[in-house]
Write a structure and sequence with these properties.
single chain; alpha+beta; Immunoglobulin-like; 2 domains; 9-stranded mixed sheet; 4-stranded antiparallel sheet; 3 helices; 16% helix; elongated
Length: 294
């Protein structure tokens, strides 16, 4: 009888430990703002391509009273043959951008929101395909947190009516065991191969505050934007937004002479205040801040 009780207790302890481990693995990583708690989990089915469907498990929180954080803790691939991806980071980044389109709500045309961030474990692995044919993408244990900030803009010309662009890699965590024999793969790739979308070369880096120059600053009527020929070749338009993300002025670069390296923008319609001018294209983005004073 005693042996039976001991065996039973052992089974219970093992079950509780396994259950606790399962629950802990489902919890989102907390890269900062430790007092800001997550709500969830939530589940959403997303279509990544005509043949690729996934179900994402995610959490949400308002971090430090400002940032809209989404944490991804599991991706279930529902159409395994149709979801072909060559890189774990690329796949999870695609999932991330589609999820942000779903969670960010309505954003008016030419309006951008910059307070969105996505957190996920830095290393992920594929779990064994279950009898239903689904494949789980789940975090590896003890790898830290990848936190990336995004800009989401309303654009009715794009699928989902929005564009999603990473603007800053806040933290990368660790992913040390990524050898050929390891199931763990980097989910926060910062090598500039397109997985996150942040370039490593200075001329293409959208995060560098001095990627383009503006003068006079402050200005009252005309803003001069100076950029290199290589930078201008990557851009197809320049636009001015206020600090709330509302687009106020737009200039199509196909309509102006770019050979001088200086673009003139008439800002006489703007009220006194601080604004951001952006040179934007499909593969690059350069911004600078300026003021209007009258």
């Amino acid at each position: 009888m005693v042996r039976f009780i001991v065996t039973l207790l052992s089974v219970v302890v093992t079950f509780v430990a396994a259950t606790s481990q399962g629950l802990s693995s489902e919890q989102p990583c907390v890269p900062d703002c430790p007092q800001s708690t997550y709500n969830g989990p939530y589940k959403q089915v997303l279509q990544l391509s005509p043949t690729c469907f996934v179900q994402v498990t995610f959490w949400r929180r308002l971090a430090c009273g400002y940032n809209q954080d989404v944490a991804i803790t599991e991706v279930r691939i529902l159409s395994v043959p149709g979801c072909n991806f060559y890189n774990t980071a690329v796949f999870l980044e695609t999932v991330t951008r589609e999820l942000l389109k779903y969670t960010s709500g309505t954003i008016p045309q030419d309006t951008c929101k910059t307070q969105w961030r996505v957190a996920k474990a830095s290393c992920w692995r594929s779990d064994t395909t279950n009898p239903c044919g689904d494949t789980l993408m789940i975090p590896c244990s003890g790898v830290g947190c990848c936190l990336v900030a995004y800009e989401i803009c309303g654009d009715t010309n794009l699928p989902g009516g929005k564009s999603v662009r990473p603007t800053d890699i806040v933290s990368t965590g660790t992913c040390t065991d990524t050898s050929r024999r390891s199931p763990c793969r980097n989910a926060c790739d910062t090598t500039g191969d397109g997985s996150i979308g942040l370039r490593t070369t200075s001329i293409n880096d959208p995060l560098q505050p001095n990627a383009i120059s503006v003068y006079p600053n402050p200005t009252d009527m005309t803003l001069k934007v100076a950029a290199s020929t290589a930078q201008l070749a990557l851009c197809d338009r320049m636009y001015v937004t206020d600090l709330q993300g509302q687009r106020r002025i737009e200039v199509k670069l196909s309509d102006v002479d770019r050979t001088s390296g200086t673009i003139l923008i008439n800002v006489s319609s703007l009220a006194s205040g601080t604004y951001i001018v952006t040179c934007s294209g499909a593969d690059a983005r350069f911004s600078a801040q300026f003021s209007v004073q009258r």
